[in-house]
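name: query_chain
kind: protein
chains: 1
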Amino acid sequence: MNTKTGLTGGAWRIGKPAGTVVSDKKVSTQADTGHDDIDYYGGYLIAESIARKEDAKLIAAAPSMLETLQIINGDIDRYPNPYTALEKKKLIEQAINRALGEE
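structure:
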């Protein structure tokens, strides 16, 4: 599955400093916002000041969870449809595992 959907078009992951989520694609065109301090964050900043590691994992998994729901709903044309029930179940399990940080 392509996990590069979502508003940024980039894959989201946990950043270098604890409590951050970053993208591999630029997320802001505004200067001096801190979003593009990739040396510090390890990517383009999506979110920071996330107190719980579990919450950061969930936020980082959001784009792939959205894509999974779109596939299951039949909204993404680049994938063959319809998926079998077993294939849908596997996609759902993968999305849940990403959200729990168990990839």
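note: The first helix runs from residue 38 to 41.
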